[in-house]
Write a sequence for this structure.
């Protein structure tokens, strides 16, 4: 359990890095809104993975928040209260990183993504 504790804290530490970076860009508007959206998705992903590690649950190498939600649902059904938040954030792993027929990202959308990521953070931390 000692090593497990260290591992989940490492996931949370990486999530906090994403949070700090996203918050800095939002505060100073010195970057791209798409970066905030991506970091918000990453923040949520890392908190969910840290929660799975804390509960000693295996997860495959994935970035799909909805698949992580399904894994967490097995021991924490309340995760479904955040299904809409996870669905909103899920698209940013691909759409913000690769060219394609994706919409432009606005500051309003970046702020919304960051708020949703913080809701996931709060959900996880309340259960640790």
């Amino acid at each position: 359990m000692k090593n497990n504790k260290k591992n989940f804290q490492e996931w949370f530490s990486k999530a906090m890095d994403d949070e700090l970076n996203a918050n800095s860009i939002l505060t100073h508007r010195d970057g791209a809104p798409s970066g905030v959206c991506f970091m918000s998705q990453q923040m949520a992903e890392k908190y969910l993975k840290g929660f799975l590690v804390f509960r000693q649950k295996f997860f495959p190498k994935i970035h799909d928040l909805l698949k992580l939600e399904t894994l967490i649902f097995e021991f924490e059904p309340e995760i479904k209260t955040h299904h809409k938040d996870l669905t909103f954030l899920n698209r940013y792993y691909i759409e913000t990183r690769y060219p394609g027929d994706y919409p432009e990202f606005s500051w309003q959308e970046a702020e919304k993504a960051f708020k949703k990521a913080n809701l996931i953070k709060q959900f996880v931390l309340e259960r640790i």
The CA atoms of residues 29 and 107 lie 8 Å apart. The helical segments are 2-28, 33-54, 65-73, 83-90, 92-95, 107-125.
